[in-house]
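Obj.: predict assembly geometry.
Materials: sequence records (below).
Method: joint structure prediction, all chains together.
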Amino acid sequence: MKDIENLLTTFRDRLHGIQSLHDLEQLTIAYLGRQGVVNDHMQKLKDLAPDEKKEFGKRMNEAKKHIEIALQEKKSAIMARDESEHTVDITLPGTAYPRGSLHLVTYAVEEITRIFSRLGFIRVTYPEVEWEYFAFDSLNMPKNHPGRDDFETFFVNGAPDPNYGKMIMSPHTSSGQVREMMRVKQPPIRMISIGKCYRPNWSTKHVPMFHQFESLCVDRGINITNLKGTIDYFVKEFFGEHRETRLRPHHFQFTEPSFEVDITCDVCGGSGEIDGAKCKVCKQGWLELAGAGMVHPNVLKEGGINPDEYSGWAFAFGLERIMMMKEGLKLDDMRVLYSGDIRFLEQF
Ligand code: PHE
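Observations (raw structure tokens):
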């Protein structure tokens, strides 16, 4: 009988210290569970003399009842306390709903579209899965051009078209030049084509899927001054007033003459030197930015435009490339743009 009293005293002590429903649940299991203290005591019944058995059994049942009630009361008390702590104060401001944002590349596409639209350029997009004809043949590129090798271009399985050749993943936005001439039919053309391009390259400066934006301008009397002026306008709007550009002779099959466009390096300010040492980023003050040139007469003809009457220019920038050059962003590995790492993405 003394055992039962001890059991109850210990129980009350333990119950007293309980603050949470979780702990109360543990205590309930410890006492009333199949292998709990109460059942454990009941085991003693079989070792007792018959007259003692009756009394012990009765007392144990009372003790069990007592424990059950005490646990129930404690439960109600804890729940009432929790509820009063959790009442809603309707005068407090609501919880802010988490908001997503657009991808960094999408913001850049929007900014570029805005800059060119001020000059009257219309944004278009052309197929990512493209025919060889638009990507190469219509651009004056011979069948044996190295760019048509499968080291340089992704080919899509499937039967070639008798007129348009094989299907490929468009390796540049220039594939849209003749498509745009066919769409507009009659100059003037002021195109800004922004889209995905595909080439089998993978490094800090290359991803196999990237973006280019291509500008095409065709009208009467269009010359290199217009080309340089448009590029300068874009560069100053996108990078800032202090950045300069230059045209360097180059070769493309679909432009004549052709250029590469360079921009002054923002790390050394275009001097090529930092404290008497060569600038590590550009080595000579300039960074390569884009390909450009005056549209080749053969390309105009391919698009149904008379080259004796009209002339034009075209240029294309790599979108991820110019994002890496933008001050403040400090992107040193292009691949992070497409890693899907939310810690990177949610900063913008
Ligand atoms: N299509 C060329 C490239 O991807 C760039 C270019 C575009 C050059 C337009 C001249 C005119 O490298």
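Conclusions so far: The chain has a mean pLDDT of 93.
To do: check interface contacts against the pulldown list.
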